[in-house]
Amino acid sequence: MDAREKKDMLEVLSPSEAWSKIREGNNVAFTHIYNLYFYDLCRYGSRICGDRELIEDSIQDLFVEIWRSRNRHPQVRSVKYYLFKRLKRKITKKLIDKRKTPIDRNILEDYNFRIVFSHESELIAQQVSKEQQSRLLRALNQLTRRQKEAITLRFFDGFSNEEVAGMLAMDKKSVRNLIYRAMLVLKKHLPKSLFLPFFVFLGQK
Description:
CATH architecture of the largest domain: Orthogonal Bundle
Distance between the termini: 38 Å
Shape: elongated
CATH topology of the largest domain: Rna Polymerase Sigma Factor, Chain: A
Number of domains: 2
Helix content: over 70%
Number of strands: 0
C-alpha cells in the first residue's frame, strides 16, 4: 500500500481510530489528526489569549509531546476533547510563566476568555445581519468568563455537558446551571429579533 492509499484509508477512519494508529506509531495518522484539528485548536486558543505566536507554539509543543510519548497515551473517547483540554493547560501555563506569577492550585483559572467570531460568524450570518452580529458579540463578551467558556464549548465546539464540566473542573449540574444563567443574561440584554435567531442557532448545535 503506497502513501496515498494509506492517507485515503486514514481519512475514512474516525478520530479515535486514527488515534489508535498514532499510538502504534503511524505517522500518517499523526499528520491526519494534526491537520484535522489545527484550525479548531487555533480558534480555541484565540479565545484564551490574543498572542497568535504563543498559541501556535503551544499547539506545536502539544503535538511534539504527543508524538514523543505516543506509546504511553491512553485510548480516548474524544480526541478533540483531549487536545482542547491539554492545549488549555499549556497556554495558561505559558501565560503565567510570561508574567512570572508563582504557580499555585488556581493556575488554570487565571486567564481571560474572549469570544471571537470566525467559523461561528459564518453560521450565525445565516440568521442575523453584520450589525446584529456585532451587537451579539458585545453581549456575549459581557458574560462572565465561565459563562462565555461554557457557551462556546457546548454550542460552538460541540462538547457534551460532561466534557464541558471536565474542561471547567465543574460537575454537570453546575455546567447546566451556568449555561442557563448565561442564556438569561443574553435574553435580558438582546432584543427578541436578535436573541431568537441566536437561540435557534444554538439549538441546531
